[in-house]
Write a sequence for this structure.
């Protein structure tokens, strides 16, 4: 009897919490949670975010539309209202004392995420293997959105034939090949993933592209332009300033640097426990304050572009391709991995839909662009050059002339 009463109380507690975000247990709507194991309630109350994800992987609960569920939860800020304070405090303390993104740990993310199989990413991503947010302003397909993103970056960087470009976190070579092929530049791409190195070297072999397995802190060479797409999330708050110092050290006096990164609305020292354990170990999302503080006195901010809503659509496209092509790769993985990966993609899509996560493209110069030079306006992808400085949340504009 006591056990039954305890179970009933735990169930009511979970139901009360979820009701704050308009989510019901065993309800009839797509975002409602269907409980398959009665132990779900006590497990989630004990472990919160980590337990919620793990219990889904274990089939203890299901949901017809995970992205809608997490949009509800995140929009209601439910995660902040019921944080496991002991767990969060421990993570913050660990981040402040231990440098989880130190040189000795720099290659962990490569081995645990990016090296889990090129076959997986090949069936999920676009044809150019871009594992970052696409630009959907005029695009109707994932391929088009990723090419629009690549060209947007190239135009913001004012690439010209013969320039040298450093790509920090080059992935499978999508940007490096595009920039070399379309703009005639010479690219050095670095990554901490051995699988990415092998793929990118083959993918880019016909162009002036070099791919190296290397930590960014070891860079010494000077470049006309530097880009980092979807890598800053792995740098860690203890290393943000070091990262910016490396950029300055490697950027020529008249150079430009573009940072393309996922970000959060508040400064943090850790990430979601489930994401850290199963998807991106030792990762964390920077805030505007952290980026600005890290670059202050080191680089000059020229342009800040918010593109977060594009990532919702990108993640949903990845999820659709992953599900559609699962039969092609399922012999390499198991059902628990399938549930883990769908949980990852759909919960992340919701984080952008609810505007809890952001996607920013930030352009810096080393010494500052001259006032009155290259301030013409033009719409990205339209063939003209111009950027116009400032913080925007719409179609990007880019400078007509390079820095002097």
């Amino acid at each position: 009897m006591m056990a039954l009463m305890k179970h009933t109380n735990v169930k009511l507690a979970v139901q009360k919490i979820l009701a704050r975000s308009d989510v019901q247990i065993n309800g009839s709507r797509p975002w409602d949670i269907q409980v398959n194991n009665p132990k779900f309630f006590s497990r989630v109350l004990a472990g919160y975010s980590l337990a919620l994800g793990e219990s889904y992987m274990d089939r203890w609960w299901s949901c017809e539309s995970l992205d809608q569920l997490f949009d509800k939860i995140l929009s209601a800020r439910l995660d902040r209202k019921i944080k496991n304070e002991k767990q969060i405090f421990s993570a913050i303390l660990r981040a402040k004392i231990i440098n989880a993104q130190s040189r000795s740990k720099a290659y962990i993310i490569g081995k645990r995420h990016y090296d889990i199989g090129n076959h997986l990413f090949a069936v999920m991503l676009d044809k150019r293997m871009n594992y970052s947010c696409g630009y959907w302003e005029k695009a109707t397909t994932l391929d088009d959105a990723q090419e629009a993103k690549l060209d947007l970056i190239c135009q913001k960087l004012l690439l010209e034939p013969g320039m040298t470009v450093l790509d920090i976190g080059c992935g499978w070579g999508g940007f490096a090949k595009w920039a070399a092929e379309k703009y005639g530049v010479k690219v050095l791409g670095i990554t901490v993933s051995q699988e990415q190195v092998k793929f990118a070297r083959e993918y880019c072999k016909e162009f002036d592209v070099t791919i190296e397995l290397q930590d960014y802190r070891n860079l010494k060479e000077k470049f006309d332009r530097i880009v980092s797409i979807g890598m800053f999330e792995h740098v860690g708050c203890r290393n943000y300033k070091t990262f910016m110092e490396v950029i300055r050290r490697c950027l020529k006096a008249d150079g430009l640097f573009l940072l393309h990164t996922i970000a959060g609305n508040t400064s943090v020292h850790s990430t979601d426990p489930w994401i850290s354990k199963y998807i991106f170990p030792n990762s964390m999302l920077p805030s505007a304050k952290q980026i600005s503080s890290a670059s202050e006195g080191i680089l000059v901010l020229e342009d800040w572009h918010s593109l977060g809503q594009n990532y919702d659509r990108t993640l949903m496209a990845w999820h659709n391709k992953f599900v559609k092509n699962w039969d092609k790769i399922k012999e390499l993985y198991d059902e628990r991995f399938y549930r883990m990966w769908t949980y990852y993609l759909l919960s992340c899509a919701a984080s952008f839909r609810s505007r809890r996560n952001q996607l920013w493209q930030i352009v810096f110069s080393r010494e500052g662009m001259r006032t009155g030079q290259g301030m013409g306006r033009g719409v990205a992808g339209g063939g003209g050059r111009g950027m116009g400085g400032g913080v925007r949340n719409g179609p990007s504009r880019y400078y007509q002339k390079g820095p002097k």
